[in-house]
Amino acid sequence: MTETDVAIIGGGINGGSTGLELAKNGLNVTIIDKNFICRGASGVNAGTLTMHMTRAQLIPYAKKGWELWMNTSEWLSKEIDVEKKNGLCLAFTEDEEKLLIERSKIRKEYGADISIISIKEAQRIDPNINSSIKCAAFCEMDGYVSANQTGNAYSKALKENKVKILENYDVSKIDYHKNKYVIIFKNGEKLTASSIILATGVNLEKTLKLLEINIKIKCLPQQLIVSERMPKIMDTVITVANGKLSLKQFKNGTVLIGGGWPGIGNVEDNYTETKPENLIGNMMLACHAIPRLKSSRVARVWLGLEAETDDAMPIIGEIPNYENAYIIGSIHSGYTSGPYMGKLLAEKILGKDIDLSLFDIKRFL
Amino acid sequence: MINNRKYDVIVIGAGPSGVSSAINCAKKGLKVLIVDLNSNSGGQIYRAPPKTYKSISKKLEENVIQNKLSDEIKKFKIETAYNHTVWQVSPGFKVNAFNETSTIQWQSKSLIIATGTYEKIIPFEGWTIPGVIGLAACTVILKAHHFIPSKKIVLAGNGPLLMLVAYYVIQFGGKVDAIIDTSSKIDWIKSTLSLITNPKNFRDGIKWIFKIFLKRIPFYSNSTVEKAFEVDGGINVKIRNLKNGKAKNIISETIAIGHGLIPSTDITRLLRAEHIYDEQKGGWIAKVDRFLRSSISGVYIAGDGAGISGALAATDKGLLASSALLYDEKFISQTEFDHNTYKILKKLDKYEVFAKAIFKLNSTPKKLIESINNGTVICRCEDITKSEILRAVDQGAKDINQIKSWTRLGMGPCQGRTCHYATSKIVAEYLNCEIDNLGYLTGRSPIRPVPLDRVLGDFDYEKITKVEAAPL
Q1: Distance of alpha carbon B217 from its chain centroid, rounded?
Q2: Domain range A85-140+218-308, its CATH number among 3.20.20.10, 3.30.9.10, 3.40.50.1820, 1.20.140.10
Q3: pTM of the complete model
Q4: Which of A119, A128, A321, B59 could in theory staple to B63 by disulfide, Cβ–Cβ 3.0 to 4.6 A?
């Protein structure tokens, strides 16, 4: 039977970032994934790093996360493309204008450097936007990551820091005795660990059951749409007042349309299916924001499963009644703040005084 | 855009197998819709000339067969949706398609997938330059349009298609500068005994070869196009003999190259049906039982989609798949089903001998894969080279979907149709593993690129579906 200091179940960016930080501080870490590293939501999300869609209370964390993303060569790897862009959040109607002003104000209170700007100013920042907008919110702290490269970047960094990666290892049981956790896999193998971290994203509900903890984790099947490569048609990250659009053009010319329009899917079978009417709505909104997009063709649609708690706030920290057991997940717009949240949890595990009370799992128990 | 027209069965693909299965179902009173992205029935082999070509005087044999298919569809009053490209199929079954002006959704209880095959091209340096076309694509130009891509042409790849295209190019007044075949003359001679089991095709083959012989077309066996680049007046074609390593350069205007066919699995992969790898049947194919039922209840695969057996077998495979459907849906009795399928299965066994011989002539030699230079673009949609693929593998990508994710291979408009096969071969060769271990690309909608303006039409902002705002 193999042994490790820390066993992290779930190899997405939450587990990966926590593991990376722990390993850098000398701990022996093993990351376990039932599939491959960052093959779930971490690898298939839109990669948007915007404040305009971040939940107000999470703005301070998203800002730190954004800074980490802008410096990936220092702490992660060079194998991932990150672009800093200006972010414009658009309002097309008077109601949306009201909503945008109100939401931007609250986000600003939490530390986001967002300002409301006129049509003219918005057009100066990106002349490609629909000229019929009422107003826009502007934030310099925006950008995107090519999320498909996440797996490559994390697996390289983890290996370099001597983290052991177990891919295609599905956990069937977690035993606890003599201050040790014994993780039993479906293939019959076992792993002993002094600490465990649960970071299984949309599978957290199921993983928590292994510790006899029952918490509802919603599974949101999100659709994403990407165009074929086209000449440059935009130069900003575009979002809208109600948060239901994220739009940007990658360096290779493809335009990614996101925004969390639901498709069909469930976590039990890891099944997803597109919902054509929602694809159409999402595409219409995108083409309304950047009219030239309409001359393009959709190359691919895919879905990812996002995890959400009942209050749409993360669960991060210690698991009560268990020694040295931790959880991290369900972070709204989690791709932006994930690396920072992981770092925070790692620091807490290493004994630093970190306040994670906002994300305490106890609120659901 | 949602039409909600309901059918008992939707047949996707109006080639010979799609048409025979549609007719078989219509005869039993089922409400059938047959969908095809082309403007008429016929599929690839019996492709109809465009309707605007009013005066194609001399009809080819293929054109005559197409007319027959078309008449049959009319006779049985089968509803057709030509010029409709299917872009999404979901369980239930809902079939989404678009045409020149709009999008539409149909529903059906059962599905017959008769989407046939597409062309296999093993990449080489320069295969993406203008003037390099697919060998099967070339047959489309010849058979359906009755013209040649250029006056002078080099034909490369392997299999009987080389001979057929050469025959038609000469027939339509073109000049074949060279035929470059990865197989050897011995491979051809060895296959004769099996090919003769299909006298009609065998006779055709003899006719083609005779014409090529008469014209004294330079024939390079055991050879491949290693490199192509544009020069004044055409394309420089560098020919490499895979056996003795000798190279030769010739100048021509067009290269038509193809290494056989790949079964189309877009829809079955999208539906998450089970697939297996069978090199002899063309690569990854949907898993089917003897009667062509897929692993998904209500989905049947007619024609070459679940394994290549050729145009002559296509009609019978259509009958077989539709008989299974009719039996499963209780439109025919066990006795009728047994009676109908007994003969078909026997006939199909005979065709298999022929199909296997064709496969041998179309096989992808190890040396051909090895001959691909590291700088050669493999995924032409995203410009991913062989060395980028191997780098991802070196960094730990363990299956084809991980390679896709790390490199963008297969993420473009063709969804990996063009690069999937060659990538699997390259990586399996590199890792010295079975292709099965690498898996296949997860099916993603849309299976063909969807023009946004066509799907969306003109719309007012107010018309956009309202969704709940994201939490603040």
Answers
A1: 28
A2: 3.30.9.10
A3: 0.91
A4: B59
pLDDT tens figures, A132-177:
999 999 999 999 999 999 999 999 999 999 999 999 999 999 999 8
- Residue B1 is predicted with a pLDDT of 44
| Nearest C-alpha neighbor of B424 from the set B407, B438, B441 | B438
Contacts of A262 in chain B (CB under 8 A): 467
Q: Collect all residues of chain B within an 8 Å Cβ-Cβ radius of residue A36.
A: 398-399, 402
Contact A228 B449 (CB under 8 A): yes
**DSSP per-residue letters across A291-334:** GGGGGSEEEEEEEEEEEE-TTS--EEEEPTTSTTEEEEE--TTH
Summarize pLDDT for B95-108 with one digit per residue, the tens.
Answer: 999 998 888 999 99
Q: Are strands B132-134 and B79-81 parallel, antiparallel or unpaired?
A: unpaired
Instruction: Map out the domains of chain B as residue ranges.
Output: 2-118+262-358, 121-259, 372-438
Question: How, if at all, do strands B85-90 and B94-98 pair?
Answer: antiparallel
When CB atoms are compared, the residue of A262, A271, A280 closest to B455 is A280
Separation in Å, CA B458 to CA A225, A295, A327, B452, B455: 20, 12, 48, 11, 9
Q: Do A55 and B88 touch (CB under 8 A)?
A: no
Torsion of CA B150, B152, B158, B163, to 10 degrees: 90
Cis, bond preceding B93 (omega within 30 deg of 0) = yes
Mark yes or no for CB contact B396/A155 under 8 Å. Answer: yes
The answer to whether residues A102 and A68 touch, using CB atoms and an 8 Å cutoff, is: no
Residue spans in chain A of domains classed CATH 3.30.9.10: 85-140+218-308
Rounded CA separation A248/A85 (Å): 9
Which residues on neighbouring strands pair with residue B118, listed in sequence order?
A: B262
Q: Inspect the interface and report whether the beta carbons of B2 and A155 lie closer than 8 Å.
A: no
At the topology level, CATH places domain B2-118+262-358 in: FAD/NAD(P)-binding domain (3.50.50)
What is the helix (H) or strand (E) element at residue B135, kind and residue range? helix B135-145
